[in-house]
Amino acid sequence: MYDVIIVGAGAAGLTAAIYTCRKKLKTLIVSIDVGGQTNLTSHIENYPGTGAMHGIELMRRFQDEAIGFGAELIMGKVNKVDKIKNSFRVSLANGESYDCKALILAYGKVPKSLGIEGEEKFMGRGVST
Ligand SMILES: Cc1cc2nc3c(=O)[nH]c(=O)nc-3n(C[C@H](O)[C@H](O)[C@H](O)COP(=O)(O)OP(=O)(O)OC[C@H]3O[C@@H](n4cnc5c(N)ncnc54)[C@H](O)[C@@H]3O)c2cc1C
């Protein structure tokens, strides 16, 4: 039984984990990938204190901090959440399931594409959403 399960290891999920772990809550992050949409950005320039850096590098630092404070991280796709009395059961596509007292949904979004030439090629390198 985890105190908190966080679905999604993008900026929001990893930040949430830093907060929950600093308060000694037993925390599990379940995510399809680490970094989410920020991985698509070659230059993050609006995050104070770090200077410009690639999104993947910034997310790696978020991950290191969350893990450093004690978060557990597993890769997987959540496809079902059930409320069972005073807890939640989080089920993954691979058949595994985990229980928690509190659930944080930080599964972000997928930007809409226009479907025009060059959009995919230059995403995060001039093309943004
Ligand atoms: C091209 C581009 C450039 C950008 N540039 C900037 C910038 O310069 N500065 C800035 O501040 N912001 C920028 N953004 C916006 C920024 O990336 C988002 O605001 C941020 O990623 C949102 O974080 P999030 O954690 O809410 O969601 P996301 O980053 O979307 O992360 C969601 C996470 O949830 C996981 N997930 C989704 N569904 C499931 C599921 N069913 N089971 C398990 N895991 C799941 C995903 O794998 C992912 O890890 C940019 C976005 C894009 C696309």
* N-to-C series of helices and strands: EHEHEEEE
The name CATH uses for the topology is FAD/NAD(P)-binding domain
Number of strands: 6
Shape assignment: flat
Radius of gyration: 16 Å
CATH architecture: 3-Layer(bba) Sandwich
Arithmetic mean of pLDDT: 95
Q: What are the low-pLDDT stretches, counting only 5+ consecutive residues below 50? A: none
Enumerate the distinct ligands: flavin-adenine dinucleotide
| Integer count of domains | 1
Reported for the largest beta sheet, the result is: 6 strands, mixed
**SS summary, helix count:** 2
CATH class: Alpha Beta
- Beta-strand portion reads 25-35%
Alpha-beta content class: alpha/beta
Q: Bin the helical content.
A: 10-25%
Question: How far apart are the first and last residues' alpha carbons, in Å?
Answer: 38 Å
For the record, what is the CATH homologous superfamily label?
FAD/NAD(P)-binding domain
Strand order of the largest sheet: 3-2-1-6-5-4
